[in-house]
User: What shape does this take?
Amino acid sequence: YGCTEQIVSAAYPWLYVSGADATRAQTILKGAVNRLLDRQSADGAFGLWRAGDGEAEGWIGAYATDFLIEARKRGVYVPQEVIDKAMNAMRDMSKPEGFTSVSYRLKIEEGPWWNAMAAKSVSEEMRSRASAYALYVMAKAGSGDLARLRWYHDVQFKAERSPVSKAQVGAALALMGDKARARSA
Assistant: This one.
């Protein structure tokens, strides 16, 4: 259907294409980058369908930012302003608790499928997982927050149930040079 997640998922493998298909890969990557640029809001968040729609979850923002960083490393033009805004959104998203000013969907509302307790629990998991991915993307881009990573490892790991989130924090810690916590994660 062409949502942000699908754009990134369809284009991501083309980052690793070389040889005869390299020209085609560059064309596909440029197209995906341009579509993502059209979806970025002033706060750095990427909309699910369009800029500012507030429908994308935080991990989708981290996924889009991760893709843009990788595309740039492979020679696709991504404006520095876009990266800066996306990284500011990642810094805001990297806080697993509290207020955030970016326009990502960070909670599930109570409704026919969720009672208040279930909605709160799922919302906390969504936020924590988005935070872990944001921390990884920040470290990968060379602007990680070592203090926040260490806090996540030392405190948040007690409640974190996602092995992927733990792996992302571990990888980010390794990238930031904290080998002991990286091995522990």
Q: What stands out?
A: The longest helix spans residues 116-140.
